[in-house]
Amino acid sequence: MTPLLSVQGVTKHYGARLGCGNVNFDLWPGEVMGIVGESGSGKSTLLSCLSGQLAPDAGKVVFDTRAEGPRDVLTMSEPERRMLARTDWAFVHQNARDGLRMGVSAGGNVGERLMAVGARNYADIRAQAIDWLGRVEITEDRVDDRPRAFSGGMQQRLQIARNLVTGPRLVFMDEPTGGLDVSVQARLLDLLRGLVREMGLSAVIVTHDLAVVRLLADRLMVMKGGHVVETGLTDQVLDDPQHGYTQLLVSSVLQV
Amino acid sequence: MIRISDVSKSFVLHNQGSAVIPVMEGASLSVAPGECVALVGNSGAGKSTLMRMIYGNYLAGAGLIMVGDVDVARAEPREILTLRREVLGYVSQFLRVVPRVPTLEVVAEPVLAAGGSAEAGEARARELLARLNIPERLWSLSPTTFSGGEQQRVNIARGFAHGFPALLLDEPTASLDATNRAVVLELIAEAKARGAAIIGIFHDAEAREAVCDREIDVSGFTPARAA
Amino acid sequence: MTDQAYNFAYLDEQTKRMIRRALLKALAVPGYQVPFASREMPMPYGWGTGGVQVTAACLTPEDRLKVIDQGADDTTNAVSIRKFFERTAEVETTEHTAEASVIQTRHRIPEQPLEEGQILVYQVPIPEPLRFLEPRETETRKMHALEEYGLMHVKLYEDIAHNGAISTAYAYPVKVEGRYVMDPSPIPKFDNPKLENAAIQLFGAGREQRIYALPPHTKVVSLDFEDHPFEASKADHACDLCGCGTSYLDEVITDDAGGRMFVCSDTDFCATRQAQGHRGALSPQEEYA
Which CATH fold topology does C3-222 show? Predict the structure, then answer.
C-alpha cells in the first residue's frame, strides 16, 4: 500500500522567521490526521504548503494521484495542481465566506465543481446538488437561496457539500468548527465523521480545539514554533503526552 | 494472544521541574485465547496504566507488547488503528462519544468499523441493548444524556458489538445492579467461549471469581521507589 | 469643415501603431483579451472610447464609415462619433450597411449579412465575461489561461434556477474556436449566431484597456446546457413599419395609454425594406395605390 500523501521535509520561512520546519509524515487512505498547536505555531502555514496554496522553501508533498500514482504536488504544473484542487482535493475554510461564492445560490455553489469538470446537463447538476444538500442536512427548498441567507453552521455545511460533491479523496480543513456555536459544532463534527467514514476520505484537520481532534482525528501532530514536537495516535498524545508543550496544552484545556 | 514482556513506563512531568515518575518495571504476562486474566493490586498499583499501554493509549517506555502479531509498543499509529478496529476491543470506564449520535449507532459503530454491514451492525446493537436492559425508547437518543449506569451499559454493548479476538475490560461491572452485572458476566463468558483473550480489572471479587481463570498482581511490576 | 490641427483620425501615428499591434495580436488569438494603452478621448468613458480608438487605428482615407447605436444611425452616440470622424479624418460616411467598409457599432450587429472586406468595430463596456462571478482580475486571467470555464456555466445555472430559463438576454457568453470564452459586448443574444460571419470583428474596451477580435468565419458557440439549449430570442412580433418577421425589434411606447409598436432596431435595414415597398401593420396609409 502507498500512502495517499507523503510529506517530506517541508520547510517554509517568512524572511528570517520560520513558518514551519522540516515536517515529515505519511497520511494513509482513510486516515484523519489532526494538527494542533497555538496561534503562530505554523499549522496553517503547513496546511497551505500541503494544499498547494503556498510554495515551501524545501521539501516534497507527494500525492498518490489516480492516474499517475505518487507525484510531487510542488513540482506539478499549475493547471495540474488546480485540477487536483477541484477534483481529488477539497479545502474547507474556517470562514465559509472564503470557501463559498456568496452571490451564487446554494445549488450553484455545489454545482460549480461539477460544471468545472464538464457537467453540462442542468437537471443532473441540480439533482446532484440537492442530493448533497440533503446529505449535509440542508433541505431542498433552500437550494436556490444564497449563502448570505444561511446561518453560520449552514454555511459551513454548504461549504462541505460544495467540496465533497466531486468525491475527493483528500480533504484539508482549517478550523472547520471555529466560530460556531457549541451545539452547531457537535452537529458538524457528527456529519464530518459520518462522511469521512462513508466516503473513505483522508483528511488533514488543523485546529486548536483538542476536543475536535479527539472526536475526528485518528492521529495527531503537535506543532510549536514551526516545529513538530510530538506525533502519535490521537488518544495516546492526549492521554499520555510526552513533550512538555503537549503536556501544557492538554493540561490547559478547560473542563466543562 | 496477548503477550507482554519486560514492559516499563515512567511519566516525565516537563512542567513540574521535569519530575520523572516511574510507574512500571519488568511487567510480563501472557493471555491465551479463551482465557480471562484479572489484573489485581492496590489502587495506584498500575492496573489501568498497564491496560492502557496494551491498548496503545499510553506509550510504553520499553519492552514488548504483542497483541496477535503486532507489537503495540513499537507499531505505527495506523497499525494500532487497524488492530483496534479488528482485533483489540476496549471497554473503558467512561463512555466517550460524538454528541447527538443515537445510541443504536454508537453501539453499531465497531461492527461497521470492522467492515460489517449496516444491517448486521444494527441487529447486533439491538440485541445487546435489549440484553443489557436499555429501554428501547432510548435507543434513538444520544447516550450523552443517560444516567451513569446506562452510559456504562451502552459502553459495554459497544465493546462487545464486534467479536474482538482480544478484549480489555476496565471495571465492566462497576455501578451496575445485580441483573445487569449478570448479563455482563454472561457476555464475558460467551466471549471466552468463542476464544477471546481477555484482560480485565474487576474490583468486584465475586465477578472476578465468576469469569477469571487467573489473577496477576501488578504490584509486582511497581518499581521500587527510590528512597 | 475640417480641423487641420489634428492628425488623421485624431490619434497620433504612434498610438495607432500601438493599437494596430494589439489588433493583430487579438486577431491571431481569437477571443483573447489583449491589453492596450488606451488613450484619453474627447468623450466620456462609456460613450465608445474603446471603439473609437479601434476605428481610428483602422481607418484609411478611402474608407466609408457607418456608425450605429443599438442599430440606429440617428441616435446621439452614433451621430456624434460619425461627426467626429467626418471632422478629424474627412472620410466618407454612409448609413447603408452594404456600402460601409468600417462599421462602428454599439450593441448590435446589422441585419444585412456582412461581407468580406468589411470591418465591424464593437464598443465594449466590460470585456471580462467572468467578472461578475470572480472579481479578481488576476484570477480571471488565470482561468482563461487554464481554460477553467466552469464558472461561466454557474452564471447560466443561476439564471435557470431563479428564472426557469437562461434569462441572460444580452452580452451572452460565447466560446471562440473551442478555446477562449468571450463577452460579445452587450449585443442581444438574438445577434449571437451572426457573430460567425465574413467580416473582421474587432472589440475595443477603452476604460478597461482591452482589445479582442474575431477573424472572418471564426467559430463562435454560445454556451448552454444540454437540457437548456441556447435560443436566439426576439420579440414575437413583426416590424410594424416594414413587416419583417425575422429582424430584431425595438418596442416603442407611443402614448401613455399602453399604446406601443414594434419596429426594427436596425434603421437602415427597415428603411431599405420600406423603400422596396414592404409595409407593416402600422405603416402610414398610402396616399395613392
Answer: Rossmann fold (3.40.50)
